[in-house]
TrEMBL record:
Localization: Cell projection, Ruffle membrane
Residue span of region Disordered: 73-94
Species this protein is from: Malurus cyaneus samueli
InterPro entries found in the cross-reference section: AIF-1_EF_pair, AIF1/AIF1L, EF-hand-dom_pair, EF_hand_dom
GO CC terms of this entry: actin filament; ruffle membrane
Residue span, EF-hand domain: 1-26
GO MF terms held by the record: actin filament binding; calcium ion binding
Protein name as it appears in the record: Allograft inflammatory factor 1 like
Length: 94
C-alpha cells in the first residue's frame, strides 16, 4: 500500500522505481520494465497484489499459495460491511 501511489491495488513503473530507490537499489527504466515483466509473466505493465504475493512466496511455497487462494475465496463470500458497526450493549461484550 505504501508504494501504490494511485490507490488502484497495483504497482506501476514509477512506484517500483520509488520503492527500489527507497531500498537503496535504484534501477534504470529498462531494468524496472524487465523486473515487472518477470513478475507478471509479461502480461501486464503493473504488478497486482496477487503477482506481488506470488513473487514473495516463490515457487516452493505451494501450501502458502493455497492458503492465499482460499483466503481470496473466503473474502468473496463474506464481503466487508460498510457503514458504522452495529450497536452493542454491555451484556454482549466478551
Amino acid at each position: 500500500m505504501e508504494f501504490d501511489l494511485n490507490n488502484q491495488g497495483e504497482i506501476d513503473l514509477m512506484s517500483v522505481k520509488r520503492m527500489m530507490e527507497k531500498l537503496g537499489a535504484p534501477k534504470t527504466h529498462l531494468e524496472l520494465k524487465k523486473m515487472i515483466s518477470e513478475v507478471t509473466g509479461g502480461v501486464s505493465d503493473t504488478i497486482s497484489y496477487q503477482d506481488f504475493v506470488n513473487m514473495m512466496l516463490g515457487k516452493r511455497s505451494a501450501v502458502l499459495k493455497l492458503v492465499m487462494m482460499f483466503e481470496g475465496k473466503a473474502n468473496e463470500r463474506n464481503p466487508k460491511r460498510s457503514g458504522p458497526p452495529p450497536e452493542r450493549d454491555i451484556a454482549s461484550l466478551p
